[in-house]
Amino acid sequence: MSEVFSDDIVARQAGADASDRVRAALEGRADVMAMTQATHDAALRPADPGGLSLALRAALAVRVARLNENAELADHYRALLEKAGAGETESAVSDPAYRGHEEERLSAIIAFTDLVSMRPRDTRAADIEALQVAGIPDADIVRLAELNAFLAYQIRVIAGLKLMKATA
Length: 168
What we know:
Layout: H1 9-14, H2 20-28, H3 30-44, H4 54-67, H5 71-83, H6 88-93, H7 104-118, H8 125-133, H9 138-167
Helix pairs in contact: 3-9, 4-5, 4-7, 4-9, 7-8, 7-9
């Protein structure tokens, strides 16, 4: 794989090292790949995480990857989860079966993440209001939406590149 993409999550997940076609596509869009990696870092490891800790962000990313049946991406985010010093709660959040039963705030975050990850067309204003009712400040709702938007984008780019690789 090109040195340009050696630390790039999308390139690694797409198997760019094993496919000339995928590698060439990524090298032709190096600017987009650099912005994608920068967005990854901003979404998962921001300097100011606000009310969404680095561990919670990583846990939600593992969850979304698992919901989308992307085990390799889930492994990547699980490593970030461990690096962030995840506790019992964040580890539980990473499991798609966990609903955050005992905490209204966490339950609302999980419900919103699951909805926008699996059925984005079903998202309504009431879903944002549910986050507000659970006591989540607007700035953290925006942060949560940004994280979910990035994960959706990343998962779809990886899937497209894997399809390109498989049909090459």
